[in-house]
Each structure stands twice: as C-alpha cells, then as structure tokens.
Amino acid sequence: MTARICLACGVQQPGDRDHCPICEDERQFVPEGGQQWTTGEALAQDHRVVWRQEAPGLHSLIMEPKFAIGQCAFLIEHPAGNILWDCITLVDDATRARIEGLGGLNAIAVSHPHYYSRIAEWGRTFGAPVYIHEDDAEWVQEPGEPIRLWRGETLPLGDGLTLIRCGGHFEGAQVLHVAHLDALFSGDILQVVPDRRHVSFMRSYPNLIPLNAAQVRRIAAAVEPYPFDTVFGAFPGRTIARGGKQAVRDSAERYIKAISPPAGERGT
User: Fold this and answer.
1) CATH of residue 99
2) Which of 8, 249, 17 has its CA nearest to residue 142?
3) What pLDDT, in 10s, does the model give residues 28-72?
C-alpha cells in the first residue's frame, strides 16, 4: 500500500494509516478541514527543491511552492562526509543528482518530529543513517533502517560535528554544532525570531504553549560549552549572522524574565 504524506506537517505515514499522530499532538494541529494526504509522486509533479548557498560549503534546501510547515534543510559539506541537517519532504531526481555530485551523504540528523518528513526515504536514497534521539523514538512513523536511535546528551558525527540533546520542544529535541562553520543549527528548538537578533523557546509554536524557566535554562546550558557565532534557524532567512552565542544567552534571560512574576509578587 502506498505511503501517504500529511499535508499539514509533511511527515510520511504508512499507507494503512488514516490519521497523523504528529498533528494530533498538542504541539501541532489538524487543520479545520480535517486530515488530508498526498504522495511523493504527486509532490514531484508540482513542487521543486530550491537551493541557496548560505556560506562556502553550506546549502539550504526548501520546497517551492511552500509545503506543510515550510522548514529548510541544510546540506553541510565536510571532509569527513556530508551531513543533511533537518529534512524536507520532496526527494526528487534533480536533488538526488546534485547531492550525489557533491559526494552524497554520510549522515542525516533531524531536530525534532515536526521535521521528520520522509526521513526513511532520504536515508534509503543516499545510504545514510538518520540520527534521532531515543527520547523521540515514539514519533518515528517508519521505524527500522535507516533510523539510528542514540542516547545520552551529545553524539559526535565526525570531526567538529556534534549533536546536542536540548529537550524542551520535544524530549529528544536536538541541535547540531558545526565547528568549522562556527555555527549552531537550531531547528526551532531555539527558534530564530524575525528580528534575527534573538531566539525563543516554546513547547508549541502554533498553539502558543510556552516552556517553563527550568526547561529554557536547560536548553541554554546544553549549548553553552560550544563556541558559535552564527545560528541557522529553521526557516528561510532566519539566521543570526553574528554574535549568536551571546544572542542565545540574552534570549534565555529575556524569556525567563518575561514569564517570571515581578519581584514583589514572588511567593504570594
């Protein structure tokens, strides 16, 4: 039975499933018109993958026209093997050929379940393992190869490439530190906001459910040991180009201050 793709979140489901568990969770939503589906073959007919060079050896990939949540994927060229950070739903022939021309993929890693898209298809296409933190295993809709569950707080993927479990948005939510780019790839675990000088933190962005202060402190502490100047967020143009490390510190402090009661009201 042909696998189906959720139009709301872009995640592929087994063909015999008539609902999307990711959209039914409180962090996402089922559209007012109800659950709707498409297929990979149908997407390839009316969508394409657009590439943008963000820096030497770094490319962002988005789908046009916009599909589902609309996140970017990033292809990071690296001597130890290229890595794809986060995923988009379309894996078309042109994209396959271009990635193979750059040397293929050594690994794929995804920040959290909203961006799982067609991770099994991506992994099989390029013969690459897909790294997901084990705390988010329940959200993998097509388990088995090439999914690789990892545990702990950090996972090295090669020289200067490190996955960091932050939690918060999801229990196993992860970010990627890339030393040679002096950069943090944050997904929306640390969401780069429109001013491009801050990040924010939420349990649910569409449903406006905040995180508490302890969770935000944990996220900030998880990335604190790593040097980075640039923060690449989840969406086109959402990049903090300079001063990213201090921006994360300031943003965590600002967020915690905003959700905390005024000094005179504490303990009352």
Assistant:
1) 3.60.15.10
2) 17
3) 999 999 999 999 999 999 999 999 999 999 999 999 999 999 999
| Alpha carbon separation from 173 to 34, 39, 86 (Å, rounded) | 27, 27, 12
pTM over 0.85: yes
Query: Is the pLDDT at 26 greater than 70, yes or no?
Result: yes
The amino acid present at 266, given as its one-letter code, is R
86 φ/ψ sector (left φ>0, alpha ψ -120 to 50, else beta):
left
Confirm if 129 and 166 have CB atoms less than 8 A apart. Answer: no
Q: Which domain holds residue 194?
A: 4-31+38-262
**Rounded distance between C-alpha atoms, residue 217 and residue 20, angstroms:** 32
pLDDT band at residue 151, thresholds of 50, 70 and 90? Answer: very high
188/173 Cα distance (integer angstroms): 9
- Cβ burial of 267 (10 Å; 0-12, 13-18, 19+) is exposed
Please give the DSSP secondary-structure letter assigned to residue 179.
G
CA distance 184 to 229: 8
pLDDT tens, 65-79? 999 999 999 999 999
pLDDT at 263: 73
Question: Helix (H, G, I), strand (E, B), or coil: what is residue 69?
Answer: coil
Cβ atoms 48, 94 nearer than 8 A: yes
> Where do the H-state alpha helices sit in the chain?
21-24, 40-46, 93-101, 119-126, 213-223, 244-259
Domain count along the chain: 1
